[in-house]
């Protein structure tokens, strides 16, 4: 029997395909959606409606039709493949350099940096608190890679605490990447939230020279 043709409305974008294509990966959300027992959600024109951004559904559909892998917008397609639980496509995309680099290399490193995401949130909170009627905010960051460096910095951190200066401390961690790699990750992840941010060595003269390598200023630009 010929598989019935279906029209889909995915977040306002229209697609035409067949039921067998949508059921191609057993256990996926699309296969479940188009199994006979599931009650479908229809739009005003009678098309199957999926309340999800439609832009990157096309590459997912191309994979189901012909196992064609996307060559563009890979992180976005990866997110949709995860949402629709199309496991073979998720696995193939995880082998692409973009996703492999982000998931396996960078994310695995950051998982070894204690309290990384909490520290990012704290930096943003401190920057926003300082932003009232200002063009920019600065946040002081201390980065130590080893326990020895952490011990060396303890005195400087006490001085900052005495001066009531907030310092966000990253590290130590047990992984190959260096201090600059961590600083680049912090900058990248804060910029990904929409902030305009830069970092530089902390240059106040009050800090003794031996501590200079551990302290950085992150500058948030507001306008």
Automatic annotation (TrEMBL):
It comes from the Eukaryota. InterPro entries: BTB/POZ_dom, KCTD7/14_C, SKP1/BTB/POZ_sf, T1-type_BTB. Residues 4-101 form the BTB domain. One of its GO terms (biological process) is protein homooligomerization. SMART domains: BTB. This is Potassium channel tetramerization domain containing 14. It comes from Panthera leo. The gene is KCTD14.
């Amino acid at each position: 029997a010929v598989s019935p043709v279906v029209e889909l409305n995915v977040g306002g974008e229209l697609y035409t395909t067949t039921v067998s294509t949508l059921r191609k990966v057993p256990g996926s959300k699309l296969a479940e959606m188009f199994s006979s027992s599931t009650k479908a959600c229809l739009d005003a024109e009678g098309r199957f409606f999926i309340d999800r951004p439609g832009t990157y559904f096309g590459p997912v559909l191309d994979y189901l039709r012909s196992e064609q892998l996307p060559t563009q917008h890979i992180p976005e397609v990866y997110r949709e493949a995860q949402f629709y639980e199309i496991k073979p496509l998720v696995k193939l995309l995880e082998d692409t350099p973009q996703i492999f680099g982000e998931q396996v290399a960078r994310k695995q490193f950051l998982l070894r940096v204690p309290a990384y995401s909490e520290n990012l949130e704290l930096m943003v909170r401190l920057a926003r608190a300082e932003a009232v009627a200002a063009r920019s905010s600065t946040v002081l960051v201390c980065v130590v890679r080893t326990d020895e460096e952490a011990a060396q910095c303890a005195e400087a951190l006490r001085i900052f605490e005495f001066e009531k200066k907030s310092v966000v401390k990253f590290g130590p961690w047990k992984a190959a990447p260096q201090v600059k790699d961590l600083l680049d990750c912090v900058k990248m992840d804060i910029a990904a939230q929409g902030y305009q941010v830069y970092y530089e060595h902390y240059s106040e003269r009050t800090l003794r020279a031996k501590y200079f390598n551990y302290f950085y200023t992150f500058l948030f630009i507001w306008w």
